[in-house]
Specification:
Radius of gyration: 19 Å
Number of strands: 16
CATH superfamily of the largest domain: D-amino Acid Aminotransferase, subunit A, domain 2
Order of helices and strands: EEHEEEHHEEEHEEEEHEHEEEH
CATH topology of the largest domain: D-amino Acid Aminotransferase, Chain A, domain 2
Largest sheet: 9 strands, mixed
Distance between the termini: 30 Å
Strand content: 25-35%
Bound molecules: 4'-deoxy-4'-aminopyridoxal-5'-phosphate
Low-confidence stretches: none
Number of domains: 2
Length: about 300
C-alpha cells in the first residue's frame, strides 16, 4: 500500500529503492520511541507540484529534533530540496511526504549520536475521509506537557493517539477527541479541533496541543475572511452547546464533525464557518496561493 517495487525513498543521503532499504533492529527509536517526524502534503498546482508550507514543517522538524537532543544534519532548505527530488523520482504530484529522523543502536536512555534521516512519500487520500465525522470524547488525555514536549512531533507520543483512535473506532465512532490533563478540550489524535458558536470560532490555546500548521492556516484564512477566532480553554460541556465543529491537520485537511458523543451539531455543515474555511483551504493548497518555496 505504501510502496511497490519501483518506489524510491531517501535514506541517509541517497535515493534508494524502498524494498532494498533496511535499518538496524537495535535502534533506539524502535525500542523507546525516541525519533521525530513530520507529515507534509504536496499538491499538483497550476504552477507545478508544490509542497504546502514546507518551510514551516521543516522548521518544526528541526525544533522537534532539538528538544529531543537529536542533531539533524540537514537545513530546512536542504530538506525541502530533498522532498522535491523525492516527488520527482517517484513521479508524484499529489502526495503525502513523511520525513522520519531515527536513531542508531542504543539500549540506554541517553542521547544517541548516530542520526538517520529517511524520507518517504506516497499517494494518500484525506486521512479522515470526506464524510462528516462521528466523534467520541476519549477516555484518554493528551500527554502532560510536563512529561514531554507536546509541541514536538515525537514518535513515542503517538502511542497516545493510537490508544484514543482504537478506543473510538472500537465503540463505533470515526475519530477520538482528547482533553488535556486539566480536562479541557485539546485536540484529536492527529488533528486540531475547532468549534463554532454564535458566528465565532474557538480552539484550544497552545500549551497542551501540537501547534498545527493547518491550525495556523485556519487562523490566516479566518483573518482574511473577517471571522473572529478565539484561543481559549473550554470544557466538553461547551462543545455540547456549540453550533458546529471541525478538525484540521495536514493529512485530514479541514473536515467537518457531525456529532460528539450523542450531541449532533445543529448547524448544517454547509452553512458553517468551517465549510467556508474548508473550501478556501482547498483552493489555497491546490492553487499555490501560499508562496514560501525557496526553489
Ligand atoms: N495534532 C496532532 C496530535 C497531530 O499529530 C497533528 C498532525 N501533525 C496535528 C494536530 C495537526 O498538525 P498539522 O496541521 O501541522 O498537520
Amino acid at each position: 500500500m505504501y510502496y511497490n517495487q519501483e518506489t524510491v525513498i531517501f535514506l541517509n543521503g541517497k535515493f534508494v529503492k524502498a524494498n532494498e532499504a533496511n535499518a538496524s533492529l537495535y535502534n533506539q527509536t524502535m525500542h523507546y520511541g525516541n525519533g521525530v517526524f513530520e507529515g507534509i502534503r504536496a499538491y499538483d498546482t497550476p504552477d507545478g507540484v508544490r509542497i504546502f508550507k514546507a518551510k514551516e514543517h521543516y522548521e518544526r522538524l528541526q525544533y522537534s529534533a532539538k528538544v529531543m537532543h537529536i542533531d539533524l544534519p540537514y537545513s530546512v532548505k536542504e530538506l525541502e530540496q530533498i522532498s522535491y527530488k523525492l516527488l520527482e523520482l517517484n513521479n508524484f504530484k499529489d502526495a503525502y511526504i513523511r520525513p522520519l529522523v531515527y536513531l542508531g543502536d542504543n539500549m540506554s536512555l541517553t542521547p544517541t549520536n548516530e542520526v538517520h534521516v529517511v524520507m518517504m512519500a506516497w499517494e494518500w487520500g484525506k486521512y479522515l475521509g470526506d464524510s462528516l465525522l462521528r466523534v467520541m470524547l476519549s477516555s484518554f488525555q493528551r500527554p502532560n506537557p510536563k512529561s514531554c514536549f507536546v509541541e514536538a512531533k515525537v514518535v513515542g507520543h503517538y502511542t497516545n493517539s493510537i490508544l484514543a483512535t482504537t478506543e473510538a473506532k472500537s465503540k463505533g465512532y470515526d475519530e477520538a477527541l482528547l482533553t488535556d490533563m486539566n480536562g479541557y478540550v485539546a485536540e484529536g489524535p492527529g488533528a486540531n479541533f475547532f468549534i463554532e458558536k454564535d458566528g465565532k470560532l474557538f480552539t484550544a490555546p497552545l500549551g497542551n496541543i501540537l501547534a498545527g500548521i493547518t491550525r495556523q492556516t485556519v487562523f490566516e484564512i479566518g483573518q482574511e475572511l473577517g471571522y473572529e477566532i478565539v484561543e481559549k480553554f473550554f470544557t466538553p460541556e461547551e462543545i455540547f452547546n456549540a453550533d458546529s465543529a471541525f478538525f484540521c491537520g495536514t493529512a485530514a485537511e479541514v473536515i467537518g464533525i457531525q456529532s460528539v458523543n450523542d450531541y449532533k451539531f445543529p448547524l448544517e455543515w454547509e452553512d458553517s464557518i468551517g465549510a467556508v474555511i474548508q473550501r478556501k483551504y482547498k483552493r489555497r493548497v491546490a492553487f499555490n496561493e501560499y508562496h514560501n518555496v525557496y526553489l
